[in-house]
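Contributing new records

If you add data, match the layout below exactly. Sequence lines come first and carry their own label; structure lines follow with theirs. Keep one chain per record. Anything else will be rejected by the validation script.
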Amino acid sequence: MPAYALPGTEVGPRRARTLGIGAVVIVLLIVIVWQALPDSRPADDIRVALLATHVGAGVAPGTDVRLDGVRVGSVASVAIVGPGRQRIGLDLQGSQLFGLTDALTVDYAPGNLFGITALQLNSVNGGKPLTDGSTIDLSGRDPDRVRDATLAALLESTGQLTDDVLTPKLTELLRRTSHDINAFTPLLQAIGTTARSYTETRQLPPSFLLDQYGSALNGVPALLAGAAELLHSDLTNQQLQTKQDIQRFSEMFDKVKTLMLPAATDTLYTAQKYFQGFLPIATAILDQVSGAVSAPERSEGELSELLARLGTAFHDSPSGPVLNARVDLDVVPGLAGPLSALLAHQPGAGAR
């Protein structure tokens, strides 16, 4: 049996050559038909190429391409075209682009809750409408037109934040800030206590209080004028014209500082030591006195009326104030006669 023959078959040399030539011809026909047939893409599809300096993590052939959140195509290819330059081929639906131009911007962003990357196209005013075969260079003078917001980029930025910001220096800064804020705690407590005390004890409206406090400003001009006159009198005082007078004046203040003030301080400390126990008693007495006046307005009116009546009940005389009094002695003839004779001899005297 020949070497090329198989047991149980009728293949001979001639038939084997015929089968081989037929198989080669069929393969050649298939290749020619595949290359010769026109492109079978839908008429609505266009192919666009993007040139970028980097490609987001997860961008590969088949990645969804979205316009304002709506899928309008997919990534056809990703290839390197030079140092630091990548070419991204896109298959897009022309009818869904709605005037998208070559001034677009690109975002590599998660397309769903699982973080799978999608290529997001953003419309920008200006530029030329996209056509089949357009090439958009995003790696030139406007690299900010490409933004990487993928999940990997977010995790990387979070790691950089942790490494660069959350450092011992930040901890020390926070500790110092907390310490400095604690130093203001007494001041804030004092302000709060003052406001609370004012709220609890206020009995008059704020408008009245502000009016009364503002009335104190009426004395400011007189105070300033008096201070100016005092300074002027010091400069023009005849008693301070000589060096001896100025020396005696300085000695007076030295004695006030070295003798008078220490003695006054010792006196106050001694009074505090021996009389501080009387302060609660004085406070209790004043509380009782203030409690006895139930209606201050009425008491003020009655006291004013009493003082006015006392003022009209006396009149001035050479010997001092005299009470205005009139005595009716007609019912006592024994006293009326002698008193009338006595008063008749006093000039300017009348029956009082």
